[in-house]
Amino acid sequence: MATLQEGDKRDLDDDSDEEASDDDEQVVVFRLDKEEFGVPIDSVQEIVRVPDELTRVPKAPPFVEGVINLRGAVLPVIDLRRRLGMAAVERSDRQRVMVFLIAGLRTGFIVDSVAEVLMIHKSAIEIAPQLSSEQSKLLARMANLERQKRMIQLIDPLHLIEGRDLAGLADLAA
After folding, report:
1. How far apart are CA 113 and CA 100, in angstroms?
2. CA distances for 127 relative to 68, 123, 130, angstroms
3. What is the pTM of this model?
């Protein structure tokens, strides 16, 4: 099991060699297919390997892959690909479960891989094009890292699960 440590942080902002400032945002970058996504580092509780078996729960919401025992607590696990409407893939050793606290509920999301912890200068962050109301809440911003020829979609984890879906997850973890 891997948790984020202070030594894991990397600064890939070519504009400055200084320590993090108020002009920087630190994000955990992960991949789904060929796309890169980022979440604020302080929103990630931990990152663990996907277990060989997830316990399937009858009558669980359809987006839930199952639950796992994470240090004595029941953790609902969601495949983020499915949640975002992407095609499913077979499990691999590179996949990880990113654990977030959403409205008081610890929830795990399976991602294809976790790439790095990255410092992004706020000047590289832009408002994402609004394609739908759901997308604009979830992916409101994008990091345009021109020097590295990268575009990182910044996700607000609080919007990964909302409303009735959140209530259904709370029932699983209870």
Report:
1. 16
2. 36, 11, 9
3. 0.81
Q: Give the 3-state secondary structure of residue 82.
A: helix
Sign of CA dihedral 171, 161, 5, 53: positive
Residue 105: beta bridge partners?
102
d(CA 12, CA 164): 39
Strand locations in the chain (E):
9-10, 24-32, 35-40, 44-49, 64-70, 73-79, 96-102, 105-111, 113-121, 125-127, 141-145, 150-154
For residue 164, give the DSSP letter. Answer: H
Give all domains of the chain, ordered by start, each with its CATH number: 24-173 (2.40.50.180)
Q: Tokens representing 72? A: 């004595």
pLDDT in tens, 56-72: 989 887 778 999 999 99
Tens digit of pLDDT for each residue in 150-171? 999 999 898 888 767 777 777 6
